[in-house]
Amino acid sequence: MNGTRWAAWLALPLAAALWAAIAGWLATPLLPGPAKVLEVAWQLLASGALGEHLGATLRRVAIAFALAMALGTALGIGMGRSRLLDAFCDPLLVLFLNLPALVTIILLYVWFGLVETAAVLAVVINKVPNVAVTLREGARSLDPRLEQMAAVYRFSHWRRLRHVWLPQLFPFWMAATRGGLALIWKIVLVVELLGRSDGVGFQLHMAFQVFDVAAILAWSLAFIAVVQAIELLLLQPLERRASRWRTAGVAHA
Description:
Layout: H1 2-26, H2 34-47, H3 49-81, H4 83-97, H5 101-112, H6 116-140, H7 144-152, H8 157-195, H9 200-209, H10 213-252
Helix pairs in contact: 2-10, 3-4, 3-6, 3-8, 3-9, 4-6, 5-6, 5-8, 6-8, 8-9, 8-10, 9-10
């Protein structure tokens, strides 16, 4: 265990050292070193631009993520529990799973204009099918013995959802959550690059126009730092909780 912890802590410093060594060896503005990138990031932070545009991106991510998880969870559980609904929605699910995100973004911008609603809706449409597929598999794998127990004790729909379904669906929901965040980050940046006037994606586009690699890396690292904080402080503790539930289930069995 201690070895794995040391490996995790050493990975990023070693990557930064390798980056600095390569940048120093090449000595080109196309690959600035970590010190230069951190200097640019500090300037962006001091000017207020970093907080403004990072906040805009995170707002879109939060709204799109909440809507996609709610709609995808409801659809996935419904399809997993109803053969009729599954048969009706499955072809549409396959269609939207294979529809490129770029096509969805362009179409919504063309239909609704370069507005915030179109930007968020494009992200939601691209994420809902992934959530639905994961939760559908979870709903299909619910333990029938627990269902029989709930029927014997005449559980209400709310008690059945809370005490029977949710504990079993939690690992699947966590898988959809982690995969959803990983996908939504990327789509939001593309949405901002194509049709918004703020956000990290827009700033990356502006930096690309003048080949400002230091700014591109500074915006990217700031965004990655926030994503990593969410991963370490929120998602990993929730995932450990899901793992404890499965371990406890095996032990009792």
